[in-house]
Amino acid sequence: MSTATERARRDEAVNRAYTVQVIHGCKSAAMTGAFGLGVVTLAHYAWPTFRRQTLPFKAFLVTIFATAGLVIGADNALLSHEAELRRSEQVIRRLAVMELSRQGLVPTETAIARWRDERARQEATSAKTHV
């Protein structure tokens, strides 16, 4: 596989992972921030000691909830995304090993990379003919 192609593929994977993190992190931050706001509001009305606390402290507590949600949500989404990538890569590698073994070739990393390039070219060619 050429270095430029590999680099482009890695850059695309990094951008996809970043997008997954941003989307899920923001959703999680919004949900946990709303939960934190509800907890602070409930504590304000139910607990007289908490009611005497300053507004900046209460805002700080809500911010802690939102920040924790952002970090945990983005991390969980990235871990799930990476696990899915590993599963799909494992399937492709198994297919490559079987195909190369049928051809009588030793399935080395280089041979698998060549097989992957050839397969991508064939899929591109078949996509162009079907259009």
Structure description:
- The chain contains 4 helices and no strands.
- The protein is mainly α.
- The protein has one domain.
- Helix 3 crosses helix 4 (109-130).
- The two termini are 26 Å apart.
Brief write-up:
By secondary structure, the chain is mainly alpha-helical. It has one domain (3-130). It has four helices and no strands.
Topology readout:
Elements: H1 3-46, H2 48-51, H3 55-102, H4 109-130
Protein name: HIG1 domain-containing protein
Transmembrane segments: 29-47, 59-79
Keywords: Membrane, Transmembrane, Transmembrane helix
Structure keywords:
single chain, 131 residues, mainly alpha, 4 helices, 90% helix, transmembrane helix, HIG1 domain-containing protein, membrane, transmembrane
Helicity level, as a percent range?
over 70%
How many H/I helical runs?
4
Indicate how many domains the architecture comprises: 1
Give the CA-CA distance, first to last residue: 26 Å
Largest sheet properties: none
